[in-house]
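Sequence only, no structure available. Ideas?
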Amino acid sequence: MKNFFEVLEELYKKVLLGATLEHDSQDYIFYLNPAFSEQDGSTAPFSECSHTVGLQGERQPSSVNLATSSVAPVRLKSPSPMSSAHEIKLLQLTVIKVLVTRILAVETVFLAKEKYKEIVKILLESADIDSKLTCMFQNQDKLLAHMAANCLALLLYFQLKEKKF
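Reply:
I predicted one. Tokens follow.
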């Protein structure tokens, strides 16, 4: 099975192209759920944000193998072991942002858009993602805090649009 970063990278490429995702939505949720660690650079005490760790009903994905895509073999820079948690968080936020952007885009194929909606709805319902993103606002890494704010804004916009406000 591919490592976490590689699966996220392939998911990013597929969503960026607007491709239809073929695996179970729960499998993707596993990879998109931002995790916290004490080394996340947050200025807030770890206990304030630790209540958001984990995913209700979280499960390992069956076997997400995204290698069958027709995506060009362009390789994103692999993270070093020291920065991998940071890079994974940024990639998770980027994939979530692109998912919502693709949902809102007119040119996205209907079947792909429906799968993206399903993934985002499950993420919003089960992952307590709004709290996790809010905790990231206090991160010393300004890029991570900025991405978290953008991601939360897009998710809130998506929710409002879905409720037809």
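Helices lie at 4-17, 25-32, 46-49, 84-104, 110-126, 129-136, 142-162.
Hope that gets you unstuck.
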